[in-house]
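Reviewer comment 2.1 asked that we show a complete input and output for one of the modelled complexes. We chose the magnesium ion case, as it is the one discussed in the main text.
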Amino acid sequence: MLGLNRKDGVLFLIVVVMVIFAPFILNPFPSDSSLAQFNAGYPDLMQRFLIFGIFAVGFNILFGLTGYLSFGHAAFLGAGSYAGVWMFKLLGMNVLYAITASVLVAGLFALFIGFISLRRSGIYFSILTLAFAQMSYALAYSVLTPITNGETGLQLSQNDPRILEGASAADGSLPVPSLFGLETRATHTLDLGAWSFDFNAGYYICGVIMILAFYLSIRIFRSPFGMMLRAVKSNQQRMNYTGLNPRPYTLAAFVISGMFAGLAGGLMVSMDPLAGAERMLWTRSGEVVLMTILGGAGTLIGPVLGAGFIKYFENIFSRINDQVLHQWFAFLPDGFENAMVFLVHPFVGKGWHLTLGILFMLVVIFLPGGLVEGGQRIGRLFRRKKKTDQAAGTAQGQNTPAE
Amino acid sequence: MGILEVKGVGKRFGGLQALGDVNLSVQENSVHAIIGPNGAGKSTLLNCLVGKLIPDTGTVMFDGQSVLGRKPHEINQMGISRVFQTPEIFSDLTVLENVMIPCFARRDGSFRMHAIEQVAREGSIIEQAETMLADVNMLEKRDFHAGSLSRGDKRRLEMAMCLVQEPRLLLLDEPTAGMSRADTNNTIALLKEINEKRSITMAIIEHDMHVVFSLADRITVLAQGTPLVEDTPEKIKGHPKVREAYLGEAQH
Ligand SMILES: Nc1ncnc2c1ncn2[C@@H]1O[C@H](COP(=O)(O)OP(=O)(O)O)[C@@H](O)[C@H]1O
Ligand SMILES: [Mg+2]
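Response of the prediction step:
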């Protein structure tokens, strides 16, 4: 199917189905129940799952395949965001203008940074990319104010030319991004009994693009080019003495992952047409590293899982405050209730970083392959059980065949 | 004129003159062995031929073209492949993939952006790699991680990776080091077959005299960075200078 082998095809189908039905899947709890706060099916968060999914899927093409750890990919996210808003200001509010420009600008920017940074490998490469990104952040804040609008951030205004659309709305309101007239903020709410589900146009636009991006990533993984990238990670010396030049391969991977990041930036401003310098900050670069490693670097689905996991924590755990905790532990005697709230308090609400940090450490130590490895181990456990149930004495291979 | 002509090559590491004034001529379709005690500069010489090191003096001509100043991947594309003293393979990839990569390198050159094509659809490349694996008796291990192979198998795999490129000159740095007697004999047979059937010229560094004398057409003895003598195996065996400098030491 679509030129994918069976296993990849199934994985791809699962992702497609998940994206289509996410508004249901992520809202499992009735909207007035006490568990409703764990619902993640609201447009803003669902869009972020997809956008950061794209960001991480692209990052994984560089880091997962070649092993080159960039600490500066937020620079491309930021560049894509600025390029997108500029398209909204200059050309018109169609999302396609924004994301096309985002991808191109981020790609060129990545070509420049990659060309210089890839002269080094290992920690030096990481430091170079970090330095470039922080430099971009500082420039966006100061010297480049005419382009970035400095601290305030770049936003739409009534006076923008928008040459492809003519005059803006007469009532003085700002136009909103749309795809051929379909506004990204348009949301249809479906009430089913105690449940309520939101279907947002912006989410589904992101969804289609994320599915395309994921498909492209599978194709790259299974291509001769993808194999060369894994060869870079495995043994550059052998590559050289096999007549292959690793540099253009790594540069191509760097540019592709930069373009994915730019695409994510373009989609961000398509959902909310505002771009600020803090989007280039090193914490953003670090975030995508965490997503990729947490989910499973070098695996197809890992980065998507990692992005979802971290965004869920950021948005859901951070909203659990003491009041909510008291509700949870209300069934306990007062003394115990207070003690439990006191114990759990540091890990939720503003302390969500702590929980995420601990989880991250646990994953890195016990599941070096990330959440995907966790899933595989559980799967193997079940399969082994089945096997031993069926035939107790099947011979195992003497050596470990590759997956 | 040999296919490889080394003239007046010297290389210094700080205060150490690793190579003095090396002259060497490897004839097409021959097996040329380079022997010498540890630290004689054999690996250094090989490194100068493949672009890993740049000699301070001298010239290296391959098939009438200078090798010096070219990058390793360019030299490989000229037709020189190399087997390392410790096997250099793609440990994270499967055995089959390891052999497919040189096939791609041969077909597509040092870089090609084939990002949408599929490895699984590269029928002729897969076939080429499988045939090569069958030739070295490793076909049944095609889906293993290369890193999980035994040392002997890793060497055989590396050899297959070089051979599948059909190089015009194959450089081997102690190809039987760390091998069992049986594996060593298999390797000798394999190398003999390669030289005869595929008519690939070989320059081989070797410690094991048994290997050298059963394979080589000509032998150069290197000591302290300079060639002592160059001759046929029969002459070398009886050469007093060689006995003194090398064979005497090897019999400890
Ligand atoms: N990269 C290097 N830097 C410094 N000294 C080196 C380097 N490579 C080799 N040498 C020295 O050069 C001499 C020759 O080494 P080598 O060519 O490896 O010898 P062989 O392969 O004949 O045993 C040795 O004394 C070794 O220590
Ligand atoms: Mg050596």
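Chain B touches chain A through 44 residues (CB under 8 Å). We note this here for comparison with the apo prediction described in Section 3.2.
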